[in-house]
Amino acid sequence: MTDQRQALQAALDSEHAAVYSYGVIAAYANNDRARLVAEFSAAHRARRDATIELLEADGTAPEAPDAAYNPPFPVDNPIPAAQLAVAVESDCAAAWLAAVERATEPAVRVTATQALTEAAVRRARWQVILGADPVTVSFPGKA
C-alpha cells in the first residue's frame, strides 16, 4: 500500500471514529446544540463515504470500521460532550493533514485539504462553545 493510500485509510479510520463519537456527543449535548451536532455528524458521514469512494476508485478495499470506539475520557454531560467533539475534530484534522502531506495526486491533495479545513472550522466552533481562548491554532492538525 502506498503512503497516500495508508494516509487515506488513516483518515477514513478517523472519520469512522468521528461518526461513532458524534452519536455519543448527541446523547449528552445540550438540546440547543442538537442542530449543530446533526450538521457535524452528517458532514463526517459524507466525508467517510467520499473517502471510501476515493479509496475504491484507486483500487483499494477500505478496511472495515471498528465495532466501537472508546472516548478518551468519560462523557456524561454537555461539557465533556463538547470536549469530545474538540478531540474528534482534532484527530480528524491530524489525519487529514497527514493525507495532505502524503498525497501524490492533486485531486487527493485538494480533497484532503478541504477535509482538514472543515475539521479545523468545526473544532473552532466547539472551542467557542467551550469558551476557549484562543479558539483555533496556527497549524490545525499539528501536535
TrEMBL record:
Pfam families: DUF4439
Superkingdom as given in the UniProt entry: Bacteria
Domain DUF4439: 7-142
InterPro entries: DUF4439 (IPR029447), Ferritin-like (IPR012347), Ferritin-like_SF (IPR009078)
Gene3D superfamilies registered for this protein in UniProt: 1.20.1260.10
UniProt-recorded name of the protein: DUF4439 domain-containing protein
